[in-house]
Amino acid sequence: MPNQPLDDRGVFLLSQIGHHIAYLFTARLAPLGLEPAHFGILSHLAAVDGRSQQELADLLKVHRNAMVGLVDELEERGLVRRAKHPTDRRAHAVHLTARARWALAAAEAEAEAIENEILAPLDDAERAHLVQQLRRLSAHAGLPPGIHPGLQRRRRATPSV
């Protein structure tokens, strides 16, 4: 359909809303000293604390060198600590600190608040239907569940001078 208005295109609307949500989430994590990539890693560590850096890289589909940089950032912020891995002497296990558990809880509250704000016009049944449809689209696109593709493209920020 030629000259179709952008707001009639589902992909445009998904992109517009996604960008808006990413901006909000990034802004709300900043006071916590977190970035969205950190939130993803901390969330996966909260599920299984003590994973190796390689396990995290494989799970999140991030190059192992990029994962080292991300874990370095988290360690610099006092959110994780590295320890000898209990079963692989060549690996480091990554553990959440008490500060990380506090920051993660605060970040999860922000994520919940954003979800409630964005989805406020929808009732519970509409929300459930939307999530079901979005999962279907995500699966069709070949996106791994629970892993944000932005994490794979993230570059370590250059240190400020």
TrEMBL record:
It comes from Nocardia bhagyanarayanae. It comes from the Bacteria. Residues 141-161 are annotated as: Disordered. Residues 7-139 form the HTH marR-type domain. Gene3D superfamilies: Winged helix-like DNA-binding domain superfamily/Winged helix DNA-binding domain. The keyword Transcription applies. It holds the Pfam family MarR_2. The keyword Transcription applies. This is DNA-binding MarR family transcriptional regulator. GO terms for molecular function: DNA binding; DNA-binding transcription factor activity. Signal peptide: none annotated. GO terms for biological process: response to stress. Keywords: DNA-binding, Transcription, Transcription regulation. Residues 151-161 have a biased composition (Basic residues).
